[in-house]
Amino acid sequence: MPIYNKLVRDRIPQVIERTGKKFTIRTLKDEEYIKELKNKSFEELQEYVNAENDERAIEELADLLEIIHALAKCHGASFEKVEEVRRQKAEKRGRFEEKIFFIQVEDE
User: Fold this and answer.
1) What span, in angstroms and rounded, lies between the C-alpha atoms of 79 and 56?
2) Residue 94: which H helix or E strand, with range?
């Protein structure tokens, strides 16, 4: 039996149950949950980086967004709050639309 030891989406146990396979799960404590969400974010980011086409890339971005929603809630904020902070930073510092690649700054 493969051992995964990773955070999965809420309905994965039901999906596996319908296949008739046996499995083991447990509910994480809050501290563990945040740690595993962070681990999952790296996993999904790597899957995005390795995506071979736009469709797969969008799917992985959606997974990352789901993790961001969950992490925002863990930190006592809504996704709307995260989005507002993003908008403020974009207004103050800009976005990433102009494809600017920073090389160096002269020291005084």
Assistant:
1) 23
2) none
List of residues 6+ apart from 48 with CB closer than 8 A: 57, 60, 61, 63, 64
pLDDT in tens, 93-102: 999 999 999 9
Residues 29-78 have pLDDT tens digits of: 999 999 999 999 999 999 999 999 999 999 999 999 999 999 999 999 99
**Whole-angstrom distance, CA of residue 73 vs CA of residue 70:** 5
Q: How far apart are the first and last CA of the chain?
A: 61
Structure tokens that stand for 96 in this block: 């990433």
The alpha carbon of 25 is separated from its chain's Cα centroid by a whole number of angstroms, namely 21
Task: Identify the DSSP state of 98.
Answer: S
Residue 81 and residue 49: Cα distance in Å, rounded? 27
Distance CA 6, CA 25 (A): 10
Q: How far is CA 37 from CA 6, 66, 92, in A?
A: 9, 10, 29
